[in-house]
Fold this sequence. Notes:
By secondary structure, the protein is α/β, with parallel strands linked by helices. Helices cover 41% and strands 11% of the residues. The strands form two sheets. Strands 9-6-3-2-1-12-11-10 form an eight-stranded parallel sheet. Strands 5-4-7-8 form a four-stranded antiparallel sheet, with no helix packed on it.
Amino acid sequence: MKKSSKQVCPRRTAGILVHPTSFPGPYGIGDLGPFAYRFIDFLKQAGMKLWQVLPLGPTGSEGSPYQSYSSFAGQPLLISPEKCADYGLLTQSDLDQFHPVEGSRVDYANISACKEPLYQKAFQNFLVHLEEDTELSKEFKLFKRRQKDWLLDYSLFMALKKHFDGKSWHKWPKEIRRPEEKTKKRWRKELAEEITYQEFLQFIFYKQWSELREYANSQGIFIIGDIPIFVSDDSADIWANPELFYVTKDGFPTVVSGVPPDYFSATGQLWGNPLYKWPVHKALGYTWWIGRIKAQLALYDYLRIDHFRAFQDYWSIPAKAESALEGKWKPGPRDDFFFALKEALGENLPIIAEDLGIITDEVRALKERVGLPGMKVLQFAFDGNPHNDYLPHSFSSPDCVCYSGTHDNNTTLGWYHEADEKTKDLVRCYMNTDGVLIHWDFIRTCFGTVADKAIVPIQDIFGQDEHHRMNIPGVALGNWGYRFKESDLTHELSDKLLFTARLYGRTTE
Length: 509
């Protein structure tokens, strides 16, 4: 059989930023099922070449994809029951017995209980496949072998978390907080079925994501993933590798992550993630980080690294501090890390640097030396400075990605509503518009820049206001729940996007 050559993404492209949890569907949360394929079809019809997602890891009850239980695992809540039926793990009768979940937003605190019965039913049917050694079971065993470096500890971690009523691992019995191998072996035996269940969920997630990505690529759509620079305190990453982080012998962080005052917050942001012991990572050849990025690049065509500036210098805050104002800058791994990364993965890294916030000349120089494209966000452009780096006429190179806004910004319509009159007037003058359809003015301006890639959040495509934000930085509750309706994706909308993409040379459709 002739092998098909991997498609190459055109230089000048456009795309949409939307997380799959935001998709419509009957289960209270978007997933990797039928609508995800319809969305790929919409992208193709609209002349879009890029789909950007947020991190796809398993999250807690608050739903933040930037606070995941693992840097390697997938979000089980994204598993499609319909696709499980395609694999013979559920029947149509099983699906028909499920009562659709009402609500326009994702309720992370309760959604797991809605999907869990279907997953458990699929798992019990899967056990028959294991007994009979079917093709599906062979796929599962191959998956376990290929992913064993992280799956072994992750599946035990999640089984233990369930055993201890969902508590953070810091509250587990002392023997299992920092377990010896013999202790792990004993617990693996005791929790064997639950561990297999957790492995099953990861297998199905990876299978469904791989199929969706393959379909996207076959339609000429390339996927941009997202990787948080820091990991969650309550994660298998830190539980299994405490020596790589600044934590006490009991696992509690001594210093944590955040940022000083910036565009998003006058008092800075206290994120609370434990910080890396970069000297230890360096001594080990950055093997954990290289493995992490390699695993992510196996899922996506491109990868955005969140908070790139921390590779130059990071904001270190005492763990007991009450605010981010108590932090100080510490040196990151800088060029040494990227030299090791390129040695392992190749010179041309398909990585986008999230270079927003407080960016110094040193950070810019590191990005240039490494050769990574950065981000340009139009909402940051209109401060009255005609030399603002985010104004399209200030873009010094096409080697960047232009956004109307990001998941951390207000929607464009919401931003415009909340802007003062001086800013609104500046925007209208710059874009030569009356501002009536300001979201489309931003989209056209974004597509019209010299940036190789232009991406807009789906809320801007729909013209949605501040009530449809994905995230408000610095606000702990009520984020990440945004969803849209199936009827929102219209032919009129895809035609308008296609026209705009063609106008600015961003599609061959």
